[in-house]
Design a protein that fits this description.
By secondary structure, this protein is mostly helical. It has twelve helices and no strands. Helix 4 runs antiparallel to helix 6, helix 9 packs across helix 10 and helix 10 packs antiparallel against helix 11. It is elongated and about 80 Å long.
């Protein structure tokens, strides 16, 4: 019993290898000589039993949420087949963000089943190197979503504040290059870092990727935390500049409202919608990443609230569940934003609804075609507004 318990305890020492605390398990058992009294054995057995019960409930729930996120974002992606307009930089970035949410949800679901459920609940041994690879891809995918939100904020900023530079800086080719970099750089950097540490990660002395002490230290987690905070600050500054620019344009329009009230009002209405969409996206970023990043930097072996004590495992598990839930809810809210705020996607979805109810399916499309004509002229309106007296 003691030998089996030592194996299980050593297997679970690295099971907290996760950005926001949903634990990984499956470390290969190795011989460890350690003295344990009967009370420690009983305590460890209770912890292992508690973890098994908690994982048997939490993992299926999170997998179900991941599937729901995938389905919601795939519904948005399917609408691309019925679009009859050229993809703008904003739409390209939005589509790429939806794909990243699908990919991240898939990786999170697979990693939870492979690294947590199979080992802790089903007692199936898994490769620690595969578990570490899943974690690198998962962290890279989550950061890819963050950088997509930053790219969207830059896109909105250039469209409203710098309309003269917008066509040159955000051409279709450059937008595609940016999207490719957003997809490749974060996971590549994470996996390269895991392979660059002497005696840790992929270069562990045992050859089984058992030593991941770097992941449980404050230094590593603080870098990720500061990176997310930096993205948050940049997005906040960009949206603040957008807000100031719209206020300035509104004051300018108020002076010329008598000469051309309808045109000015339409321009103001369009810009307010862009700002509202930007703020909603910014709000989802806050909802998903602020709790997760704070929990990530506070709970580790050398963090202010270490999870080394068995008595704190329930608290750490609860906060980890909350952090993962926030990120998945953010990914679930995003397709709702696309369906409500993006005219092209909304037009296709309305067309589906009218077909399902037996109504005239052409009416919504015509309305959205007219809206798309207005959207294509939005950039010209912005340029003209900058020239208004």
């Amino acid at each position: 019993l003691k030998s089996s318990l030592i194996c299980l305890v050593r297997e679970s020492r690295l099971d907290r290898l996760s950005t926001v605390g949903i634990y990984l398990a499956g470390q290969k058992c190795f011989t460890v000589r350690i003295w344990m009294n009967q009370s420690n054995i009983t305590e460890e057995l209770e912890v292992l039993k508690w973890r098994q019960q908690a994982y048997s409930v939490a993992v299926p729930v999170f997998v179900a949420i991941c599937i729901l996120v995938m389905v919601a974002n795939l519904c948005v992606l399917v609408t691309l087949r019925w679009l009859h307009t050229k993809l703008t930089p904003t739409l390209r970035l939005t589509v790429s963000l939806a794909i990243s949410d699908v990919w991240t949800s898939t990786v999170v679901a697979v990693s939870m089943v492979f690294n947590s459920y199979l080992v802790v609940v089903m007692h199936v041994p898994v490769s620690t190197c595969v578990a570490l690879t899943f974690e690198g891809i998962r962290m890279g995918g989550l950061l890819t979503g963050c950088f997509h939100l930053l790219a969207l904020s830059v896109n909105h900023y250039m469209l409203i504040v710098k309309p003269f530079l917008y066509p040159k800086l955000l051409s279709s080719r450059r937008t595609i290059v940016v999207i490719v970099l957003l997809w490749l750089v974060p996971p590549t950097v994470m996996l390269t870092f895991f392979a660059s540490l002497e005696g840790q990660g992929y270069r562990s002395e045992e050859g089984y990727c058992l030593n991941v002490a770097f992941f449980h230290r404050l230094e590593f987690r603080l870098v990720i935390f500061l990176l997310i905070c930096l993205l948050l600050v940049i997005m906040s500054v960009l949206y603040l500049l957008i807000f100031c620019m719209l206020n300035r344009l509104e004051k300018r329009f108020s002076k010329t409202r008598r000469s051309d009230p309808c045109s000015q009002q339409q321009q103001l209405s369009k810009k307010r919608k862009v700002l509202t969409t930007s703020l909603i996206i910014w709000g989802t970023f806050l909802l998903g990443w602020v709790p997760s990043s704070v929990i990530f930097v506070l709970t580790c072996a050398t963090c202010p609230y270490p999870y080394s004590k068995s008595s704190a495992i329930s608290v750490v598990f609860a906060t980890s569940v909350l952090a993962n839930f926030c990120i998945l809810i953010k990914s679930l809210i995003n397709p709702v934003i696309y369906a409500v705020r993006i005219p092209e996607i909304r037009g296709v979805l309305l067309n589906w609804v009218h077909r399902g109810t037996g109504s005239d399916s052409k009416a919504p499309v015509v309305g959205e075609d007219a809206r798309r004509i207005t959207d294509r002229g939005d950039q010209r309106s912005l340029l003209e507004s900058r020239l208004a007296p």
